[in-house]
Amino acid sequence: MSIPRATYRIQFREGMDFDKAAALAPYLRRLGVSHLYASPIFTAARGSTHGYDVADHNEIDPELGGRTGFDRLLAALKAEDLKLLLDIVPNHMAAAVENPWWRSVVEWGGQSPLAAHFDIDWSTKLTLPLLGRPYDVAIAGGDVRLDVHRNGGYIGLALGDMVLPIHPGSYEEVLSGFEAPAARVLAEIAGRAGPDTDENFHEEVRRCLAGGDLGPELERASKDPAFLDRVHGQQPWELIHWQEARRRLSYRRFFEITGLVGVRVEDGAVFDDVHRLTLQLVRDGAVDGLRVDHVDGLADPTGYLQRLRREIGPDRYLVVEKILEGEEVLPPEWPVDGTTGYEFIASVADLISDAGGSGALADAYREVSGERLEPDEMVRQARSEMIYRNFEGELDALARHAAAIARGADTSVPGEADFKRAIGELVVAFPVYRTYGGARGLGETDRQIVDKAAQKAAAGADGQVAAALETVVAILKGETASGGSGHAAVFRAKFQQVTGPVMAKAVEDTFFYRYNPMIALNEVGGDPLHPSGGPERFHARMAAAARRSDHSLLATATHDTKRGEDARARLYALSEAPERWSEGVARWRRHHASMIRQADGGPAPEPAVEWLIYQGLAGVWPDDADPTDAGRLRSLADRVRPYLEKSLREAKLRTKWTDVNERYEDAVKDYVDQLLSPENGEFLKNFAETLEPIIAAGRIYSLVQTLLKLTAPGVPDVYQGSEDVDLSLVDPDNRRPVDFGALERSLGRGGRQPFDRPPPGLAAAKQALIARVLSLRAERPALFERGGYEPVEVTGPRAKHLAAFAREKGGDSVLVAVPRLILEAPRAGLAFDPEWWKETFIDLPESLVGKPLRNLLTGQPWTARKVLQAGELLVRAPVILLGT
């Protein structure tokens, strides 16, 4: 198995292409990673900023440099002995006409040879939620017109600059009154066209359009709404207002994004078409590993992953994007090496943050915000909003399907409304993102999950709803009457594809923006509902990962995290100072009371949002902020405003993406502008002074987090630029261009040199720590890939302030110890006062006792006594890494 030493995530697009990535290869080698971890590289929808809206799975995006540019990147990586981990997107594609598969389906409907490639309900017309207002109003108002797409070679109905192809069978209706000779020729071409001769048809149309101009006649016809309506009625698709998508969408989408259509990779032929180029790149040795995006969206993740593993072979690294809840682990039958690492972020939060302080912050937040709902009720409410409103169409379809299955077995069954309520409550109660049942039902673990959710859902159900719930559970478990198994399997797959999006949108993208006592815990894979598990839970999770040979990525920042890794590390320190923080917020709110405006009957910002603003600012406040520097303050405000706009809209309380309250949003943004005005000097000075100890502790926690990532069981992942200080906000802030030139220069000055003196600052220390430990991983791959994990006891008056563990394999050992809860510890920069650690000892595990040790960060030899004095080891570096 080819397990990466470490990966380095690059976001292509937005200024990053293959040649720019190729130029980074020497730097990445010197940093010590083994794999460039690439965001999707296949041709994406026009204007894509991320590549997850794939338009052609079998073409490398010309916007990035195409195949020749990709080959130059491969050559550059090979020259530096680097490999490539590629992010692939099997679940969905762009629902855009530049996607040739989707264009075929729009044009030919169910006749298209590609109709089965997408997850579409063909019992009705294909609905296209592209109108900005209701259909009747849009047609009458001239929003829709007839036009030609010369490059595409077709006539279509146009919305703005988008031209949707009409079915060739409707050309005669469109062109019958036209006088241009080209019109008669086009009608003849369309009359003999068929979906299997699609390209020939379009080429003929292109040639015809090149020789004749239909523009004036199309413009004339476009002025007749009744005519346009007739043409529209002849299509295999139907234009609808975008706000109707939640009820009437005829295809499976990615979460709530109607511009991304679900792909049926569970079908063997579709799998082949989607993966043709990917598998060629793997077999040719161009790609060494794959990262599967949104595996929970697939109808059959287990079958998909088993097929993918067979295709790529046993030695290719394979990880899945999967959010694990609590102590959930991946299904054992999945032939993968691990996940993309969201759960590691939660484990680090466990170790660093103070559970008691987090609870005190929550109490203070509730007092300020006036929130009366318990957090778990807030989650239930958000889930209910999602399934009954945002995913109403999916819920209705499930209810119809369940009722049909039930009627097949018994004529005395609940109605669709009862099934809708039963399924809705079951989804609301679901404790994980999804189960993984197959054609025959659910495995034992999944049956327990469904039973637990059903028990919770049944608490408020009675009569026919309770009966419907029992039937739904039986369908999911595969316990329906004979003859319903095929339909039951379809229902099971559809149900399992709904629970994940509802969970994600309700928790990650709603609750995490509504409940903000300690925003560092509101992270993908995190659980702010429950107190920190402390070092005990961290050790338990890491030991379990080592036992099952888990090679998951260890992520501390990704393109999807809600704040930068160093912002989060800094904010963990707030759990050690809940009173200081809540007093500060009270003081700042009083100072700025006159800046509060009334918007739609309430204060803007309201107290809960004020709390969020101050904590968000605390996370991104520059280390060297100058309260008198107007330019830097303006730059900071320019970043914070979009963050707050997204936060407020995701919370969906007083504004939302689908119903923007501009007056309210403007008031909140204006509040931020006034906060960060140089004229607000008294506040800026006090805010900076209040944050000084928080920022100082945060620098050390950043190094703690980094060392944990580099030494815990799994594969360290470095998100682009995060080897520097990463105080970013949610996207797009975390996707800003990286100054790689500065990073290369700083590595050149420090590189892999030991910490022979206290590091001068976080940026230099963090990058040097990464380079230093990755060089050790290169020297000792077996230890870090397959080594065991053993918690190490710390004793003495500061025992709770230090967490330690050992990794051991075949006589090779390292000991890691990291400080925690050190807000009040005396420090000089990144160095500790050894007196504070007096009589605090690390008990060496037997595997290290009596062996000659070396401080692997400073290069200093160390005597392997049974116990080690923590203070002596923390003088030069704020974290400890000892080895044989």
From TrEMBL:
* Keyword Transcription part of the UniProt annotation: no
Question: Which CDD domains does the UniProt record give?
Answer: AmyAc_MTSase
GO molecular function terms here?
A: (1,4)-alpha-D-glucan 1-alpha-D-glucosylmutase activity
- UniProt xrefs under InterPro entries: GH (IPR017853), GH13_cat_dom (IPR006047), Trehalose_TreY (IPR012767)
The broad enzyme category this protein falls into is: isomerase
Q: What EC number(s) does its UniProt record assign?
A: 5.4.99.15
What stretches pass through the bilayer? none
Q: What is this protein called?
A: Malto-oligosyltrehalose synthase
